[in-house]
Design goal:
Structural class: alpha+beta
CATH topology of the largest domain: Alpha-Beta Plaits
Largest sheet: 3 strands, antiparallel
Helix content: 10-25%
Order of helices and strands: HEHEEHEEHHHH
Number of helices: 7
Main location: membrane
Bound molecules: iron/sulfur cluster
Shape: elongated
Protein name: NADH-quinone oxidoreductase subunit I
Oligomer: single chain
Pfam family, one: Fer4_7
Strand content: 5-15%
Distance between the termini: 95 Å
Membrane topology: Peripheral membrane protein
Cofactor: [4Fe-4S] cluster
């Protein structure tokens, strides 16, 4: 049996119905966000740029284990661990993350690396403005990812709090740097002791000033 033709509105009603939609929209709450002039607050657990955290005395929590890199589905993390020494100590334990990079051209901000980190060294901030026109700039280095210094902290490398061990740090027994704690020379980063710099002159390149290392 042939289908009955559907009843249609008279031709002049259709434009009027269209204006009805326009009028309704005029009185609705505006959803347009004036970004970047007006920044919107993200949800507290928003997945933004990563951060490498420090212990309360300023030593680094990262132990260079690479578990975050292995957990990453996008292969966005590159880690190189190294041994701490008494003369150049970055973390309370045996190892630290000498090189740490996250490639934000690859990262999908899924947070799996955060779950994999055994020391809570790696967490995510709410910072989302990561866009850049250069691929090289999208590779964040350890220096960019490392948390800033808070009150009571001394920048790494420096000695462990006297009389404590690595376990004490994770038990929360170290709450600030010991009085008199001084930053050590970062030999692995090409720094030189002050006296060596004076001997060789200020205009010499830092890499050539390193002696016996
Ligand atoms: S958030 Fe996800 S994609 Fe980004 S570095 Fe971590 S594991 Fe990799
Ligand atoms: S951030 Fe965590 S998981 Fe990644 S290397 Fe450092 S300690 Fe290991």
């Amino acid at each position: 049996m042939a289908e009955e033709p559907k009843e249609t509105k008279p031709g002049f009603q259709n434009p009027v119905a269209g204006f009805g939609v326009t009028f309704k929209a005029m009185f609705k709450k505006r959803l347009t966000e004036q970004y970047p002039e007006q920044q919107k607050t993200t949800a507290p657990r928003f997945h933004g740029r990563h951060q490498l955290n420090r212990h309360p005395d300023g030593l680094e929590k990262c132990v260079g284990c690479e578990l975050c890199a292995w957990a990453c589905p996008a292969d966005a993390i590159y880690v190189e661990g190294a041994d701490n020494t008494d003369e150049e100590r970055y973390s309370p334990g045996e190892r630290y993350g000498r090189v740490y990079q996250i490639n934000y051209a690859r990262c999908i901000l899924c947070g799996l690396c955060i779950e994999a980190c055994p020391t809570r060294a790696l967490t995510m901030t709410n910072e989302f403005e990561l866009a850049d026109s250069s691929r090289a700039n999208l590779i964040y280095t350890k220096e960019q990812l490392l948390a800033g210094l808070e009150e009571g902290m001394v920048d790494s490398p420096h000695a462990i709090y006297p009389g404590t061990d690595e376990q004490d740090y994770y038990r929360g027994l170290v709450t600030e740097a010991a009085p008199g704690t001084e930053r050590q020379v970062a030999f692995s980063k090409g720094e030189v002791p002050q006296e060596a710099a004076t001997t060789f002159g200020e205009d010499e390149p830092a890499s050539e000033k390193v002696i016996g290392r």
